[in-house]
Specification:
The protein is mostly helical and 80 residues long. It has one domain: Non-ribosomal Peptide Synthetase Peptidyl Carrier Protein, Chain A (Orthogonal Bundle). It has helices spanning 3-18, 40-54, 69-79. The termini are close together. The protein is globular.
Length: 80
């Protein structure tokens, strides 16, 4: 599994399912905070998407794993 493919699929998920503006969303953009503004409910949707799409559980992980598309993709690739 290529990290670039995972990143692209995650970005599409954030734009289509969570309503994130693709113009501000880069692979290293912080997902939680002022710029993108995701919250804990969004993190549950991310966990569900990753589990369904890749068969990788993210339940109970530290918040550092959810910092950006890059950190999520790294975790998926390492644990798929």
């Amino acid at each position: 599994m290529e990290k670039s493919e995972v990143q692209a699929k995650l970005k599409e998920f954030f734009m289509s399912n969570l309503g994130v503006d693709g113009d501000i969303l880069q692979y290293d953009t912080p997902l939680f905070g002022d710029e993108v503004g995701l919250d804990s409910v969004d993190s549950l949707e991310i966990i569900s998407f990753v589990d369904d799409e890749y068969g990788v559980s993210m339940t109970g992980l530290k918040k550092e794993t959810f910092l950006s598309i890059d950190t999520i993709a790294d975790y998926i690739v390492a644990n798929a």
